[in-house]
Specification:
Length: 313
């Protein structure tokens, strides 16, 4: 392979990328739709063609060698370049196409302000030959997937700012502290509760938000659990043992049945901003810009300036 890259090499490299993304041979079986033995054989074939050991696998787990990490980074660059080539050729021939990878925070589909599904429909009218892949992940994973090049753009709630990424607001979401029907505060929720009582209850923290990024009063909570996903936090609330912050649009299913209630919404509730992010100085301009323009046109700006690739925010 060192002299040239054939179709078989690209196929094997795609298998390698999938194995790394899934975290091992066993976890990638369902994605690749082949047996673990078949995956092992293909990985061995790739290592033989490259002349290096890419990963360690066995009872102790799966991890990349130093050489494997270098190949993984090179693969991301290679497949990004291939996507850019397909996109440019398609646009030049009047057929907007290529592949777009989008990472989205879990639960956003329940927010009526999130119009991602409409953006996809409008985007496909203009880019009929384009392929869109969506990954629903935790907020910190949305950022990481854009930062490391696994995805072209991400949509989610980002408490901090990461260097190397551009952020632009899309829509807002109301956040409130909730308790479940088994919780001792439930009968007096939402307003007949003191803040001191709230602070005395065990709290399920959002694993994707550091202490420094929290409002000052939230740093005083008695944390007894945590989750990096909204669904995990909802389970803690429903258990009755913990309070947790949930987006109102996600909590609506249980508030309608009076299974959970907000706590002091006028005092400690707030609105969070969902944003679209891309990596700065990205070269995949045409297809990505078309999708971002579509998002902007449907959501409308929260701020004065519309977002585009390379715009300093």
């Amino acid at each position: 392979m060192l002299g040239s890259v054939a179709d078989v090499d690209l196929r094997l490299l795609k298998v390698f990328m999938t194995v790394v993304r899934c975290g091992g041979f066993a976890a990638s079986q369902a994605v690749l739709n082949v047996s673990q033995a078949n995956i092992s054989m293909q990985m061995k074939q790739l290592e033989d063609r490259l002349g290096i050991r890419l990963c360690h696998r066995g009872r102790s787990g799966f991890w990349l060698t130093d050489e494997g990490k270098e190949v993984h980074e090179a693969c991301k660059s290679l497949f990004r370049s291939l996507d850019e080539f397909r996109s440019s050729v398609a646009f030049s021939s009047g057929r907007a196409g290529g592949r777009l990878h989008v990472s989205v925070i879990d639960n956003s589909i329940f927010n009526p302000s999130c119009r991602l599904h409409e953006a996809i429909a409008e985007f496909k009218k203009q880019a009929t030959n384009a392929e869109v892949a969506i990954y629903v992940v935790a907020p910190n994973e949305v950022e990481q997937m854009v930062f490391d090049g696994s995805c072209d753009l991400g949509i989610g709630f980002f408490p901090a700012r990461r260097q190397g990424l551009n952020y632009h607001p899309l829509f807002t979401s109301r956040m409130n502290l909730y308790c479940g029907w088994r919780n001792p505060l439930f009968a007096r929720a939402p307003d007949r509760i003191t803040l001191e009582e709230v602070l005395a209850e065990e709290h399920a923290a959002r694993g994707y938000v550091s202490s420094a990024q929290l409002p000052s009063f939230e740093r005083k909570f008695l944390v007894g659990a945590s989750s990096s996903t909204v669904e995990g936090l909802a389970n803690f609330v429903l258990s009755g043992r913990y309070t947790a912050y949930l987006p109102d649009h996600y909590a609506r299913h249980w508030t309608a049945n009076d299974r959970i209630r907000p706590i002091l919404p006028s005092q400690i509730g707030y609105s969070s901003v969902y944003e679209v992010i891309v990596k700065r100085e990205t070269r995949q301009a045409k297809l990505l810009q078309l999708f971002i323009d579509t998002l902007n046109s449907l959501h409308g700006p929260i701020e004065e300036t519309q977002f585009s690739i390379g715009t300093p925010l």
